[in-house]
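Morning. Coffee machine broken again, so started the prediction first thing and wrote up yesterday's gels while waiting. Chain of 190 residues, entered below exactly as on the submission form.
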Amino acid sequence: MKLLMLFATFFKVGLFTFGGGYAMLPLIQEEVLNLGWATYEEILNFIAVSESTPGPFAINMATFIGSRQGGILGAACATLGVVLPSFIVILIVAKIFDKFKKNSVVQGCMSGLKPAVIGLIGYAIFSVGTEVFFPSGISFSVFSDISFYVVLLLFTAMTVCCFKKLHPILIICISAAIGIGAGYALGIPV
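Came back before lunch.
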């Protein structure tokens, strides 16, 4: 039953979200929290692990949560669930898109999806950012914590690296070095 639940949950996530992994994040958060499969802090850790491993974000999240809930079979069910809707939709769209790409309704739907995806990604950034910067609620005490300044420094450094058009692998290596260095400086075991 748990395996079917993992498949169904992630199938729903894959079916009803557009725009990739970050657009899926709000729905993944809601489903996983409502089902009691993880706490909010664990979801933040899942996000970090999913971003640190090769592969698409949503697939990594589904695999990680699935393996935690149901072992290897759970990972397979959750991963298949999140991938299958996209696979089916791509097959259907590939067959019919050439016939309908000039259709005004199709163009209108595609234009309407863009702001929705941006909104979903913005919500994910806001909810994760709020938990990272203000874990105890919004207060000025966050400015007295060194971890706030470490995260701010890391964010600033990565923003500069992106505008300088550095290779993504170099940005990942710089992020890892700063994160490890900050962890040692703060006494966090790595």
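Residues 57-100 form the longest helix (44 residues). Going to sketch it on the whiteboard this afternoon.
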